[in-house]
């Protein structure tokens, strides 16, 4: 069982926006649902929810077709992975999505959660806490939450896990639990104040515009070369 199955059970619309297959592979390195049989081996499920290229999210926002829940996977050249791009396009890629949402009807009802898979173990002086028998939260990774209902310029000191994001999604739509770390971690819901009026959106300045990414050719690069 995955979050996808919980969303489907409650008829919550979702999409997984992902780059085209990696050159020389079937694309499994970028698309997690290639290992989820209920999606990969179900043509109607795949066609309805797996959207390639990842820039389709920008078109869906413009066309008022954004689903209730979205995963967005960047092309390697925009992923902030070391050595993958001669230009610093990662921040602009994130900004293009945030600006598109912020300037649309979706702003007042959207939470954007930005995470990376690279941890700070090479430089982070804080040892991971041992909280459970499932390995604990591990090394810290960056997370940025963008919403009209979160405090501005505030750093949360709560210990979260990746399961904290899942728990927040589950609770938002009363999906139930997967029964993994979502059942033992702290939800990230405490970062929000839904009793306040939504703040007005302020456009994020960036070096590369939305049109740049819509014209950009897929790199075909793998997730990692090490």
- Average pLDDT works out at 89
- Helical residue percent? 10-25%
The count of helical stretches stands at 7
Q: How many whole angstroms does the radius of gyration measure?
A: 18 Å
Sheet with the most strands, sense and barrel status:
3 strands, parallel
Q: How would you classify the helix and strand content by structural class? A: alpha/beta
**Strand proportion:** 5-15%
Quaternary: single chain
Shape: globular
Question: What's the N-to-C terminus distance?
Answer: 31 Å
Spatial strand order of the main sheet = 2-1-3
User: H/E element string?
Assistant: HEHHEHEHEEHH
Low-confidence stretches: none
Total beta strand runs: 5
Task: Explain the overall architecture.
- The chain is α/β, with parallel strands linked by helices.
- The chain has a domain at 112-207.
- Helix content is 24%, strand content 8%.
- The chain is built from 7 helices and 5 strands.
- The strands form 2 sheets. The chain has a 3-stranded parallel sheet with strand order 2-1-3. A two-stranded antiparallel ribbon has the order 4-5.
- α4 runs parallel beside α5 (90-102).
- The longest helix is centred in the middle third of the chain and has 13 residues, at 90-102.
- It is globular and about 45 Å long.
- The mean pLDDT is 89.
